[in-house]
Amino acid sequence: MLNFLKVLKGVVSYFSLKVQTSKKFRKRLLLPFCSLLVCYFVLVGVSGKTFAIDFPAGRILSNNDAGHTCPAVCRNHNYHWHGQWKTILHRGSVCGCGWDLDKKGAIFNDLNKAEQDKFDRFQNAIKNRGLSARDAALEIGDSNYKKLQGNQYQIRLSQSNRVTFLVENDTHIVKIKIVGGHT
Questions:
Q1: Average pLDDT in the 141-165 region?
Q2: Cβ distance 55 to 77 under 8 Å?
Q3: CA 102 → CA 64, 80, 151, 176, 177, distances in Å?
Q4: pLDDT tens-place string over residues 122-133
Q5: pLDDT tens-digit profile of 98-123?
Q6: Which of 37, 67, 110, 153 is in the most buried spot, having the most CB atoms within 10 Å?
Q7: Which residue has the higher pLDDT, 109 or 13?
Q8: Which of 169, 165, 166 is nearest to 179 (CA)?
Q9: What are 52-78's pLDDT values in tens digits?
Q10: Beta bridge partners of 162
């Protein structure tokens, strides 16, 4: 984030010093535009997507309190709690909810390091950041996310290995069935 701000400051300096701009131009257009960019990156972030959905949770006073309150709040909305919560001034607290990952009963075949790294990025995007399977697949790159039948989907880890999983939209859970192999 600090690097982005340094670049932004450099852009403003460039236009201010190198390009003959009037004070009126800098004051009315350039500085407000740059301020909007800074606000966007502060609010949205530049490090990656997190798809937590905030649900009202009454008043939360601490992390311990959130640990008791938020799992139930997210479960009531058919989501999973990822440990995120915040208190909004004059509005109460909210819990950040998203998708969850279930690997119980999955079959795991041997993967090479590159395949394992790709699978780890996929599963961590779901489990730790609340992304859907589709968004997690897009984030890891060339994964050929495709629907097989019903709610069964697959991504490619390499030419020879795939991950097959179920997407349960009603409970927002991705159930891993087979890691490795080719179906």
A1: 94
A2: yes
A3: 25, 11, 15, 6, 9
A4: 999 998 888 899
A5: 999 999 999 999 999 999 999 999 99
A6: 153
A7: 109
A8: 165
A9: 788 999 999 999 999 999 999 998 888
A10: 156
Distance CA 118, CA 108 (A): 14
**Which stretches does DSSP call E strand in 107-161?**
107-108, 146-149, 152-156
Return the amino acid letter for 167: V
Question: Judging by beta carbons within 10 Å of its beta carbon (0-12, 13-18, 19+), is residue 170 exposed, middle or buried?
Answer: exposed
**Strand 100-102 relative to strand 92-98: parallel, antiparallel, unpaired?**
unpaired
Residue whose pair of structure tokens reads 């909004």 in the numeric block: 88
User: Could you tell me if 49 and 74 are in contact, meaning their C-beta atoms sit under 8 angstroms apart?
Assistant: no
Q: Among the residues of 45-132, which ranges form H helices? A: 63-76, 113-127
d(CA 57, CA 64): 14
Answer whether 98's CB lies under 8 Å from 105's CB: no
Residues in the chain: 183
Describe the chain by its helix, strand, coil percentages, rounded to 5. Answer: 40, 25, 35
Structural contact between residues 179 and 115, judged by C-beta atoms closer than 8 angstroms? no
Structure pTM? 0.63
